[in-house]
Amino acid sequence: MPQTRNVSLQINGTLHDLTIDTRTTLLDALRERAFLPGTKKGCDYGQCGACTVHVDGARMLSCLTLAAQVEGRAVTTIEGLAAPDGVLHAVQAAFMEFDAFQCGYCTPGQIMSAVACIQEGHAGSDDEIREYMSGNLCRCGAYPHIVQAVRAAAAATVTQEASL
């Protein structure tokens, strides 16, 4: 008989009190219990990056993380990137501007990794972007546009920070 556990997850600034099976992954808790379907289940083995979220600001593969492991930590999903007034995050806007998606299935994970890539300071060159985004696969092959979007968002972020 499966064991259940009550967990309180801080997701996109909102507390979610959930009763889950102790084996529930963060990915499944997000999609099936917190009703946040933006994080995608690609391979379910940590190989494609479609399930990338941020935990305490660092990127994490939610399919390889138990929900109970992130209790008390700040989880950000693709739904939590835009400002409360609906203004898109710079990376989301750049993905739209540079057409950095085709089917769109990998896009949430790509965007979450791109945000982390920029925050980690790994967007200094196209080669560096490709290296630090390599954990996110795109079956459609939108990589050149993804790199352009990350480069543009990184430049916009630097410009925005300099004006503060």
From TrEMBL:
InterPro entries, per the entry: 2Fe-2S-bd, 2Fe-2S-bd_dom_sf, 2Fe-2S_ferredoxin-like_sf, 2Fe-2S_ferredoxin-type, 2Fe2S_fd_BS, Aldehyde_Oxdr_Iron-Sulfur, Beta-grasp_dom_sf
Organism: Paracoccus liaowanqingii
CDD domains, per database record: fer2
Recorded superkingdom: Bacteria
Pfam families: Fer2, Fer2_2
Name of the protein described by the UniProt record: (2Fe-2S)-binding protein
MF terms (GO), sorted A to Z: 2 iron, 2 sulfur cluster binding; metal ion binding; oxidoreductase activity, acting on the aldehyde or oxo group of donors
Domain 2Fe-2S ferredoxin-type: 5-81
Keyword Nucleotide-binding: no
PANTHER family given in the database record: OXIDOREDUCTASE WITH IRON-SULFUR SUBUNIT (PTHR45331:SF2), OXIDOREDUCTASE, IRON-SULPHUR BINDING SUBUNIT-RELATED-RELATED (PTHR45331)
Keyword terms: 2Fe-2S, Iron, Iron-sulfur, Metal-binding, Oxidoreductase
